[in-house]
Amino acid sequence: MSDNKPSRRHFTAALLSAPAALSAQQSPLKARVKIDTERVIGEIDPNLYGNFIEHLGRCIEGGIFEEKSPLSDSNGFRRDVLTAVKDLKVPQLRWPGGNFASNYHWRDGIGPRDSRPARLEMAWGTVESNRFGTHEFLDYAAKAGTEPYLCVNLGTGTWEEAQQWVEYTNSSEDTALTRLRKQNGRTEPWKVKYWGLGNEVDGPWQMGHRSAEDYGKFALEAAKLMKWTDPTIKLVAAGSSHYAPGIDWVGWNRTVLDYLKTHVDYLSLHMYVGNRDNNYYEFLANSVDLDNRTKTAEGTINAALTTMPRDKRIYIAWDEWNVWYRARGNKERGRRILEERYNLEDALVIATMLNSFVNHAHIVKMANMAQLVNVIAPIFTNETGLFLQTIYYPLQLFATHAKGKALDLFVDSPKYDSTKFGPVKYLDVSSALDSQTLTVNVVNRHKDQPMDVDITLTDREFTGAIEVHEVNGPDIKAENDFGKTTVKTVTRSATGSGKTFRYQAAPHSFTLLKTRLT
Ligand code: AHR
Question: Is 320 a catalytic residue?
Fold first, then answer.
């Protein structure tokens, strides 16, 4: 939850950096990217481009699920939203929270909808109807073609409740719970693979907040029972969500891993960034911080694994991440609805964060943008339709094209000095090789100047058509709205031959270049 408190120091990049001081009329900045297709970081897990829905504001009710709407199907799923979700190519979807998960009792959300209990919802201060529950979520995930990821209640919930949820969804045995599932209309188990052991338990804002030791012990018993119910499931430990001065982020993660390392497959981390002081360059530097956090967490995981068999792996799941600072604590329409409106600079930050995930593809194997619809989300609805926010486009491009192996790049770019994060390259890049298809994902952070980027293949050649997918807009504050798509992907083609392709990256742009290599 907590992150990125506004810097009190003044940002000085434009003054410190000579290239930044050049005017737009002068020649473009220059950068070089060298790609050796044999230098592989790791396999890009498709779950890097996942998403998240929570019972919060209009994410589920009024977002993906609106029973009385003429736009909805017979299940209550908004058809237009489902199409936008499918187009986003969401590989994995986390549910039911978030903070909401810490007091969610899954049995409230099964059986005939009209008989389900309405409950006071304390995470976000509302009433939960429970009309969207386990069956609705898992049916939705199947319709959207996405892998479900359930987060169990380790706040006010029990080990037994967590175990029984796995039994209800995954067991093929003939038990009282599987009979109940069948009675509720589902014969075959869903075989849900991904399970989160609670949410942000380190945060005092969490229902059932615990110390690392208390969480570690408690989650271990839940993990044992859940894996004994279905040994094929993958478990995600709640790492620290609280990265701030004075908070022992590393200590929490290490303690939790020491308790759970035998049983878990992922460590969950969260990161939200913002631009409260309206400092573009400092805001755009946040992916450097993400890189650092990933490296630190990787070191902590490695340290915890030293006593484990050598083939034991624990990966990082950035299972909540996004830009989020405008619609934070305030109540809107009497509730906390977190309806953030995004602009171009937010979309660029999203692209740099995706680059960071790809550039650490060996250890980051899951990432879930928070959230999918209306609540800090790429898809925004009203009663009559929807529009796609700026942040939809980079995520869609990565999910559609940046697959296969992440490549280790040499990047030579002019830099600026960020107050918080030190030197930052104006050019931010990642690259993926999927069989013979190469993508190069380029953010030009410079606000005013284009950048000539020489992309050199050291061991291969460009041999023809290059798809150029660019996300840009008239200025960094440009937003989309109902009936107005100012920021979007524009696709054109280019050709390249030989070892080097020069691409001129426009100011404040993200481009995904895609080509086939011979
Ligand atoms: O995504 C919004 C909230 O942010 C989630 O409920 C919580 O896990 C985090 O603090």
Answer: yes
Residue nearest to atom 7 of ligand 1 (CA): 98
pLDDT per residue as tens digits for the range 328-373? 876 665 667 899 999 999 999 999 999 999 999 999 999 999 999 9
Residues 254 and 400: their CA atoms lie apart, in Å, by 35
Strand partners, 151: 196
Q: Which domains does the chain have, with CATH numbers?
A: 10-42+406-517 (2.60.40.1180), 45-401 (3.20.20.80)
Is 332 assigned a catalytic role?
no
Which of these is catalytic: 54, 136, 200, 470? 200
Q: 51 vs 59, 86, 331, 514, CA distance in Å?
A: 12, 12, 24, 24
Q: Which residue type occupies 288? A: V
Rounded Cα distance, 398 and 431, in Å: 10
Task: Tell me which residues have their CB closer than 6 angstroms to ligand 1.
Answer: 1, 54, 97-99, 199-200, 320, 370-371
d(CA 176, CA 22): 72
Query: Could you read off the pLDDT of 362-417 as tens digits, one per residue?
Result: 999 999 999 999 999 999 999 999 999 999 999 999 999 999 999 999 999 999 99
The answer to pTM > 0.90 is yes
